[in-house]
């Protein structure tokens, strides 16, 4: 296996702290989900941002293979779920829209993308992920 890219983020203070890139290219204030603070994020938002970008890029690969140039939008919702006291898991909903395609055709492409996307591969069997064309 050939490494294409690696990055490192460091966190101090957990969900009430700061996460920053080792190379100082990014620094983010972190707060618990639902906090009404300005200029903060949380791990769930970061995961949703990464997953949506990765999934849409993987979809671009699938579209190129099928010689499609239709624009696509991917919306990822990450849910923090409590199964029992002190037992937390994530769940993900992916909604995708591909301009000019029927919902059924878009759904097929999204399902194929789910087998290609590195985030999907990393989460497969670990968290509940639903995929829906809109």
Keyword list:
N-terminal domain of TfIIb, 3-stranded mixed beta sheet, 3-stranded antiparallel beta sheet, alpha+beta, 3 helices, 32% helix, 2 domains, 6 strands, 134 residues, GMP Synthetase, Chain A, domain 3
Q: Any chance you could write out the topology, listing elements then pairs?
A:
Elements: E1 9-12, E2 18-21, E3 27-29, H1 43-65, E4 72-84, E5 87-98, H2 103-116, H3 118-123, E6 128-133
Q: Please indicate the percent range of residues in DSSP E strands (runs of 2 or more).
A: 25-35%
Low-confidence stretches: none
Helix content: 25-40%
> Which second-level CATH architecture of the largest domain applies?
2-Layer Sandwich
The helix-and-strand class reads: alpha+beta
Would you give the CATH topology of the largest domain?
GMP Synthetase, Chain A, domain 3
- By DSSP, the count of extended strands is 6
Query: At the first level of CATH, what is the class of the largest domain?
Result: Alpha Beta
Query: Mind telling me the CATH superfamily name of the largest domain?
Result: K homology (KH) domain
Shape: globular
Summarize the biggest pleated sheet: 3 strands, antiparallel
SS summary, helix count: 3
Overall mean pLDDT score?
A: 96
Q: How far from one another are the termini?
A: 36 Å
* SSE arrangement, N to C: EEEHEEHHE
Overall domain count: 2
Radius of gyration: 17 Å
Strand order of the largest sheet: 1-2-3
Family: Belongs to the OsmC/Ohr family.
Protein name: Organic hydroperoxide resistance protein
InterPro entries: KH_dom-like_a/b, OHR, OsmC/Ohr_fam, OsmC/Ohrsf
Pfam families: OsmC (PF02566)
């Amino acid at each position: 296996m050939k490494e294409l890219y690696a990055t490192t983020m460091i966190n101090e203070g957990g969900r009430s702290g700061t996460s920053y890139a080792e190379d100082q290219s990014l620094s983010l204030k972190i707060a618990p989900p639902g906090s009404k603070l300005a200029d903060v994020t949380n791990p769930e938002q970061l995961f949703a941002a990464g997953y949506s970008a990765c999934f849409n890029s993987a979809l671009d690969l699938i579209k190129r293979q099928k010689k499609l140039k239709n624009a696509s939008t991917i919306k990822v919702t990450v849910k923090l779920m409590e199964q029992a006291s002190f037992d937390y898991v994530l769940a993900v909903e992916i909604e995708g829209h591909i301009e000019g395609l029927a919902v059924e055709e878009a759904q097929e492409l999204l399902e194929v993308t789910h087998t290609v996307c590195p985030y999907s591969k990393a989460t497969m069997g670990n968290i509940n992920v639903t995929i829906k064309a809109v």
